Amino acid sequence: AGDGVRLEKYTLVTMDPVAEFLIAMGYPAEQLADPQRGGYSRSSFGDAARLAGEIALHYERDGLRPLLIGHSQGGMIAIRILHELAGGFRDELPVWDPVSDAPLPRTTIVDPLTGAERPVVGLSVSYASALATGMLPRLVLGQWDMIRRLHDIPDSVDEFVGFVLPFDPIAGTLGGGAPFAASGRARVRNVTLPTSYRHVGLPDIAHLAADPVTREWIERYTPTASLPAPDAAADTTNLLHAAMLWHDVKKHWCIEVQRLRAARVRLAGGA
Fold it and tell me: Cα(92)–Cα(158) distance, rounded to whole angstroms?
């Protein structure tokens, strides 16, 4: 939503298949692309403070809050962005222009929903999720300031989903892993993926939108529905989190559009 879904990649594993999946399911391709470099993935070793500043600028311009989806190290970046927006690392954040790749000389934006000036710190996103993001890489990579924050989800997101892969040696979840939990009012869900799934292969979901059988299953999926398994001949690799991601992206995409329309009516003096 907003300027698009921010997709964070993990080393040589890109999020391009996730973008291809979302596009095939109906999400606008232009809302997924990096405005400076093109492509659909951001480096998982990027600057979370800068990305938070980009989110603020996009929200100011579009009135729609972006969504964050990260895999592995990219999931950590998505969570770190939430802590940056919540003021967990600094009191002020500069607004950042992604096209010129430079900070703007201000730390506030004009909120398009209220018309009032507000700081970047304190903004929120509608939805964020992290796929197979564990504690072990934080220790190996020396990311000490994220160790106590990794599973603590602040109020800078409305809804967060943490996808955990049990017995994942890369993420370090030898069992079920520590659950993600809200520090305040954020809605947090923990989803345990099937043990047949593989860490580096989790972003590979584009094939599910290309197959009419799995695509229909995904379109019918809701968290409360009990659906029969697709035809046994279909390739259902990564079906569970693909269906959940599409359900959540659709939901928050619609919520953000409705929120913006209601605000425009209010600002125009309507009921």
Answer: 21
What percent of the chain has a predicted confidence (pLDDT) above 90?
69
Backbone angles phi, psi at 152, to 5 degrees: -105, 110
**What is the average pLDDT score of the chain?**
89
Beta bridge partners of 131: 71, 163
Determine the average pLDDT of the residues in 175-202.
92
Structure tokens at 95: 């607004």
DSSP for the chain, written as a single string: -TT-EEEE-BTTB-SHHHHHHHHHHT--GGGTS-TTT-SS-B-TTS-HHHHHHHHHHHHHHHSS--EEEEETHHHHHHHHHHHHHTTSS-S----EETTTTEE-S-SEEE-TTT--EEESTT--EEEEEEES--SHHHHHTT-GGGTTTTTEE-TTEEEEEEEE-TTBTTTTBSSS-PPPEESSS-EEEEEEPPTTS-GGGTT--HHHHHSHHHHHHHHH--TT--PPPPPTTS--TTHHHHHHHHHHHHHHHHHHHHHHHHHHHHHTT--
Per-residue pLDDT reduced to its tens digit, 42-73? 777 779 999 999 999 999 999 999 999 999 99
Please determine, for residue 101, whether its predicted confidence score (pLDDT) is greater than 80.
Answer: yes
